[in-house]
């Protein structure tokens, strides 16, 4: 089999083989390093400025000259008319420059109303400037007075369908008189000159120019022109007529109120005339605004109500436990599942007003403050009541018992609800709770040493009694070396 050498790609510029060590790639073609240059200006290229067209290489400038868009706005820069194709770089024909002045080309005239308003020629998209929906040439887009070049920022469209700069527009169509014209304080009364005589001021009262019925100002009936028009309810008003009907206060869109009589009012007069009346309305909270109403008329229109709800009796068992009246949600107070009036929710003894913190439910189905509850249902004797006063409710000298067990009050019907030590009933104000049951505060002490206990040093014993920690350890704690009164002590007690 005959040997066939490997075919390498050919360079499009010199048509010779291109090897891997010297290849440059552009547009899917492989070029020699020495051939990788612009076909027009012979500038060496790289990957950043290379442009390929039909297997020919160009720099970006030459590619734009040869194949880029032509005409106004393209070529050498914005606003430049460039028709350069780069033929002078190829040497195909000799380029002769002329020093004659460049005359403007004749512009084709457009039909009436379709061309440039200034010159009447056709306006193409690349050069059009818009004003009042009409297209101008860029060169024609100038002030009609001073020929200053304009743009979208400083162009001003005049009522004569022409365009002006802002200064010329102010001179020609702006307001005249003191404070207008070239600057504040200048008397400018003519378009281009200043006269020694003061300008004559003409004041036209437009309210005297009557309009057709239903079409003029609702207040005076005159014709309303655009410069003085104020709208309310879709109707035009004179600026000088747009006032409150009652107080003649000048109005604006913020404070104007449309009344039901198709007139306008300020907010204060609207509130007096059409707003709600009575205590708390109109000029301020707490202000009685009645607009001429007598006291008898106010009293007749005011609904009657009885503020004393205790006189409204409720069905038996459903009203306030104190007065039997109906208890409404706005004034109810709860105690033992029953509803009380706020004014009835006081101590049955001292009539002190109560709340959910101070109220104590007594066994007589009444409520008491804590002091009165303690006097009526609390333990008696030395140390109780007003500590350390000896309290006796019947006036007699109380008998002092040596034991710590109370001997007054009713016995508990259910032993489980009575005190574990004395068996008497335990009320909520004096109860102490342990694992085995309820205790009086006075009975809540150690069964051995009678030391008073609380929840931090109380220990429930297996025999149902309570002990302090020391006595509990002696009676029910472990025995032997290391236990008892101290580490290392042998206690068998």
TrEMBL record:
Q: Which Pfam families match?
A: LIM
Compartments where found: Nucleus
LIM zinc-binding domain location is 9-69, 114-175, 215-276, 318-379, 417-478
One cellular component term from this protein's GO annotations in UniProt: Z disc
Which terms are listed as keywords in the entry? Answer: LIM domain, Metal-binding, Myogenesis, Nucleus, Repeat, Zinc
Query: Superkingdom of this entry's organism?
Result: Eukaryota
The record's section on SUPFAM superfamilies has: Glucocorticoid receptor-like (DNA-binding domain)
State any GO BP term from the record.
muscle tissue development
The Gene Ontology terms for molecular function here are:
metal ion binding
Main localization category: nucleus
Q: Does the keyword Metal-binding apply?
A: yes
Q: What is this protein called?
A: LIM zinc-binding domain-containing protein
> What organism is listed for this UniProt entry?
Cryptolaemus montrouzieri
């Amino acid at each position: 089999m005959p040997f066939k050498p490997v075919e390498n790609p050919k360079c499009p510029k010199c048509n010779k083989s291109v090897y891997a060590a010297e290849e440059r790639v552009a547009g899917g073609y492989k070029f020699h390093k020495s051939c990788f240059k612009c076909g027009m200006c012979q500038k060496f290229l790289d990957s950043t400025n290379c442009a390929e067209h039909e297997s020919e290489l160009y720099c970006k400038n030459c590619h734009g000259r040869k194949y880029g868009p032509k005409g106004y706005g393209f070529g050498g820069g914005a606003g430049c008319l460039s028709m350069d194709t780069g033929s002078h770089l190829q040497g195909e024909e000799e380029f002769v420059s002329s020093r004659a002045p460049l005359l403007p080309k004749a512009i084709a005239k457009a039909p009436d109303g379709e061309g440039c308003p200034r010159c009447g020629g056709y306006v193409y998209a690349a050069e059009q400037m818009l004003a009042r929906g009409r297209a101008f040439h860029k060169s024609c887009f100038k002030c009609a007075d001073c020929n200053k070049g304009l743009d979208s920022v400083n162009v001003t469209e005049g009522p004569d369908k022409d365009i002006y700069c802002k200064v010329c527009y102010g001179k020609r169509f702006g307001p005249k008189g003191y404070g207008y014209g070239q600057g504040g304080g200048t008397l400018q009364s003519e378009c281009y000159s200043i006269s020694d005589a003061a300008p004559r001021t003409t004041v036209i009262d437009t309210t005297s120019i009557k309009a057709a019925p239903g079409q003029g100002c609702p207040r005076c009936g005159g014709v309303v022109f655009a410069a003085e028009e104020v709208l309310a309810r879709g109707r035009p008003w004179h600026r000088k007529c747009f006032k409150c009907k009652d107080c003649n206060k000048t109005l604006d869109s913020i404070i104007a109120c449309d009344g039901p009589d198709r007139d306008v009012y300020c907010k204060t007069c609207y509130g007096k005339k059409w707003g709600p009346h009575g205590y708390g309305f109109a000029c301020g909270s707490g202000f009685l605004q009645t607009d001429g109403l007598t006291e008898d008329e106010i009293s007749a229109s005011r609904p009657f109500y009885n503020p004393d709800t205790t006189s409204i009796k409720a069905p038996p068992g459903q009203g306030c436990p104190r007065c039997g009246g109906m208890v409404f949600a706005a004034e109810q107070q709860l105690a033992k599942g029953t509803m009380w009036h706020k004014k009835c929710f006081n101590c049955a003894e001292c009539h002190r007003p109560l709340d959910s913190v101070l109220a104590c439910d007594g066994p007589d189905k009444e409520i008491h403050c804590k002091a009165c509850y303690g006097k009526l249902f609390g333990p008696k004797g030395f140390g109780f009541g007003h500590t350390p006063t000896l309290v006796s409710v019947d006036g007699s000298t109380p008998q002092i018992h040596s034991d710590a067990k109370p001997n007054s009050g009713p016995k508990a019907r259910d032993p489980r609800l009575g005190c574990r030590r004395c068996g008497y009933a335990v009320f909520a104000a004096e109860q102490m709770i342990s694992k085995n049951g309820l205790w009086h505060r006075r009975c809540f002490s150690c069964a051995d040493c009678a030391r008073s206990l609380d929840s931090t040093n109380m220990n429930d014993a297996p025999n149902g009694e309570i002990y302090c920690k020391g006595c509990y350890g002696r009676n029910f704690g472990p025995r032997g070396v290391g236990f008892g009164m101290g580490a290392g002590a042998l206690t068998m007690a």
